[in-house]
Amino acid sequence: MAGDQTAIDSRQLSTMIGNGSLADASVSLSGQSAGSLVGTLSELPATEQAVAFQLLAKDTAMDVFECLDAGLQKPLVRALHDEEVTEVFSALDPDDRARLVEELPAKVAKRLIADLSPHERTRTAVVLGYPADSVGRFVHEQTVAVHPGDTAAQVIAQLHERAGDATDFETMAVIDARRTVVGLLHPRAVFAAGPGTPVAELSAPPLGAEVTQLATGAARDLLRNRLSALPLVDSERRLVGMLGLTDAALVLDESAAEDAAFAGASSPIRRPYLHTPFLYLARSRIVWLFVPAISAILTVNVLSIFEDTLAKRVELALFIPLLTGVGGNTGSQAEVTVTRALAMGDASPKDLLAVAWKELRTGLLLGLALGLTGLIVA
């Protein structure tokens, strides 16, 4: 076609993928029409076909997928969560992966996650294009599609029909023809309404989270709004799936365990204690122990500088335990307070300067109060 670049030969594309030259393959695929891409991809083996498909821009990928007949769509979706495909993208440098791998179109992502186990979903997330800590790693398929024009009777019929394979009906997403989330529907509202009442009159305002959002933030949104499931959407607000209450609890449980580990001055081990090698335990703690060790060394150096003064005024040595004890407790208080603020979403890493300024003023005030107390008592 006139608007196309020179059409890439399937053998050239296969060679690029086989050599790991994904950046070159991505450039070669860009600018091609959906029709020519369908012809090229159909000549590739399933694994290489899936890799090439993931290198396409999101809109192009959607057009190509729509052009494929059902006989090619199913093998492509199946190949996308093949271990060999995920290893290709897992081996990429994170910056290259972020540049080359866009999130899959919602329709393709929905098909891809439909039959995945939790373990397969985690492994396949790299192909879906979701970041490591994103809620997209926990997405479940929404098995009941509800539209604004459906009646209460039609929804009830769907609930009866899908009762065996749907995991959660307590919260259902209402979607339009483009799969855009336009509302939330609760079954109790459906059963309380007349059979002919349209869903548009029964649905609540839409809530949801993008699949690239931090999992902890999405989990808190779910609990804050007292939902049993939260719609997960792509960057165009199209429904990909749902975050279930069980997964939300798992996310928050892991987050709490991580915060507890940090509060205890160690890194989270992320595996059962008795199955954790002792070298791993030592590595998770040693970095955190360097901080108080260096602090203690600096304290010794300061004391050595004032050694003559301490020799002349022995009573000053009586305050050393006070300084070290209160200083340690003050640091622990600040650590717990800031860790809790991070865990609850009240602060984030971008607030570093504001947190440092607040803790500096707090520390100065506490130091002044305790210093005056020590002066009066002494």
TrEMBL record:
Bilayer topology: Multi-pass membrane protein
Subcellular location: Membrane
Record field: transmembrane: 286-306
GO cellular component, one term: membrane
Organism domain of life: Bacteria
Pfam families, per the entry: CBS, MgtE, MgtE_N
Molecular function GO labels: monoatomic cation transmembrane transporter activity
Segments forming domain Magnesium transporter MgtE intracellular: 32-135
InterPro entries: CBS_dom, CBS_dom_sf, Mg_transptr_MgtE_intracell_dom, MgtE_N_sf, SLC41_membr_dom, SLC41_membr_dom_sf
UniProt keyword Magnesium present: yes
Keyword annotations from UniProtKB, A to Z: Magnesium, Membrane, Transmembrane, Transmembrane helix, Transport
Major site of localization recorded for this protein: membrane
Family: Belongs to the SLC41A transporter family.
Protein name: Magnesium transporter
